[in-house]
From TrEMBL:
It comes from the Archaea. The keyword Ribonucleoprotein does not apply. InterPro entries: AAA+_ATPase, ABC_ATPase_HisP-typ, ABC_transporter-like_ATP-bd, ABC_transporter-like_CS, MetN_ABC_transporter-like, P-loop_NTPase. Pfam families: ABC_tran. Transmembrane segments: none annotated. Residues 4-238 form the ABC transporter domain. GO terms for molecular function: ABC-type amino acid transporter activity; ATP binding; ATP hydrolysis activity. This is Amino acid ABC transporter ATP-binding protein. SMART domains: AAA. It is a peripheral membrane protein. The keyword Iron does not apply. It is found in: Cell membrane. Belongs to the ABC transporter superfamily.
Amino acid sequence: MALLEFEKVNKYFGETHVLKDIDLEVDEQEVCVVIGPSGSGKSTLLRCTNRLEEIQSGEIRLDGTPLTDPDADINVLRQRIGMVFQSFNLFPHKTALENVALAPIKVKGLPRDEAHDRANRLLDRVGLAGQTGSYPSQLSGGQQQRVAIARALAMDPQVMLFDEVTSALDPELVGEVLEVMRDLADEGMTMMVVTHEMGFAREVGDTITLMAEGEVVERTPPKQFFEEPTTQRGRQFLSKLL
Ligand code: ADP
Ligand code: MG
């Protein structure tokens, strides 16, 4: 059984049909890279997965448990699914350490010392051992995004969702964030990654999922996708990258 399953998922914004019968399975430890033109529904797919948006029909399951039941506990499922966005959304008046430790204390009820120990370890893991006391304004965009990743990891999620997490960064800061994501992938984290970084997609992705107009139009291993996409849509998308 796949860890994350999408079955006939449909999402509308008013009259606009944004996700059309999405069927998708993400295996445990898979890095599922999602690409596609702007407006194709990539962000909406991730946002529906942790219930920032509600779907109108179909089902999304994590480890066999439906996430999209109206009575599913949103707080519990958000602990199981970490999400990182293009904008870092750190608390500006809290240090890096406090940003990472906050949810484990407030939501999980972890004792403060334990949460701080954990936060220190996580910040070390994303290469920020020396910045635990810094405020977001004292950190570069790449460092802030790494704090945001550590903060998501602090809840010990089963799956991590990344939505264009390097798109707002200065080019010279992109690599350090991708490096952290690559390490996570190597450690076996199950990930869905929306990205324009085709080098990352090719090297780190286990599968490429191409979306267009609310549909999954191609889902193949990266080598095949980048060498010989199986669909017209895939070929079209690739030709625009060159
Ligand atoms: P992508 O991330 O692939 O660029 P999105 O998931 O953001 O695409 O958007 C898919 C479609 O849904 C677009 O047509 C967009 O305009 C529409 N959309 C996204 N969010 C909203 C919203 N909150 N209200 C209305 N329409 C939205
Ligand atoms: Mg988007």
